[in-house]
Amino acid sequence: YQGKRGTADIVLYDRDQVAHPAHWLMVQTELRHALERDELVLHYQPKVRLADDGISGLEALVRWQHPSRGLLSPAEFLPAAEQSGLIEPLTAWVLRRALDDQAGWTALGQQWPVAVNVSARNLEAPGFPRVVAALVAEHGTPSGRLLLEVTETALAGDAATAADAVVELTALGIGVSVDDFGIGFTSLSQLRSVPVAEVKIDRSFVTDLDTDAPNQAIVRSVIALAHGLGLRVTAEGVETPAVSAWLAEAGCDDAQGYLFARPTAWPHLLDLYLNPRGSGRHARAELDAVP
Ligand code: C2E
Ligand code: MG
Ligand code: MG
Ligand code: MG
């Protein structure tokens, strides 16, 4: 799975895939049915403004409610989707569902932008910006209310096509975020040449940020660089108050992580954030219990 290569779960998946091609084909066949039968679900994880703890948006994260294997995480089926071309209908499904869900919280008075993850393969498909434009038009999505998260690797892949897509999407009022920022090596030149709105600092730099001096140096320079280019900065994988405090002090704009909330089905978020008790930190323990 591009952009995540090197993380433990992906290494395992790759090994699995090589050892059991039949299993892998089965995943593809089942996934095709899953799309037809509406077995995919979206969970949402809030992005929190470090300055005031307000919610600055929700990120959609896909799961597969498999009839026999339970709730599967993206690492278990996205590689098969990307290899087989199913990633195109899958991404279209995710976009449509995310915009439908957004219409739900907008009707309740919450203007939260929604962020959808897209694969390198989506970005490189020539018709992709038109597909997004059609969905946005159909939903009447205002400018700035939909963000697409793409990995640094996706921007570096077929750089010209990806950059063109980002330009087209930006012109449609759709912001592009660079996800997992910092683990690729092309970051600086890509940021200069592609009109992205946000960088999301990869979790690997964030986890022990309150104590790890090299990571502190890296994150401080990413924040300075991004702000110098007029981009917002989000830190992923914030799990402790110490890391959150460090990031706030360093001038990071937004944070996401288990400290604030785990990804969860949006009606649960609705309960937690629209009732008077609701706040990310407050709700953490309850969210942990949600499947
Ligand atoms: P990502 O976009 O970088 O999303 C962040 C991942 O980190 C999510 O895993 C999230 O559940 C997890 N996470 C969030 N906060 C914390 C934390 O504090 N600690 C830890 N340890 N983990 C945290 P998830 O949902 O398994 O997604 C994995 C990746 O799959 C995503 O990484 C994204 O690249 C991809 N993905 C997810 N949904 C979609 C989708 O709809 N389409 C595409 N193309 N890719 C998706
Ligand atoms: Mg993401
Ligand atoms: Mg990320
Ligand atoms: Mg990440």
From TrEMBL:
<feature type="domain" description="EAL">
    <location>
        <begin position="24"/>
        <end position="277"/>
    </location>
</feature>
<protein>
    <recommendedName>
        <fullName>Diguanylate cyclase (GGDEF)-like protein</fullName>
    </recommendedName>
</protein>
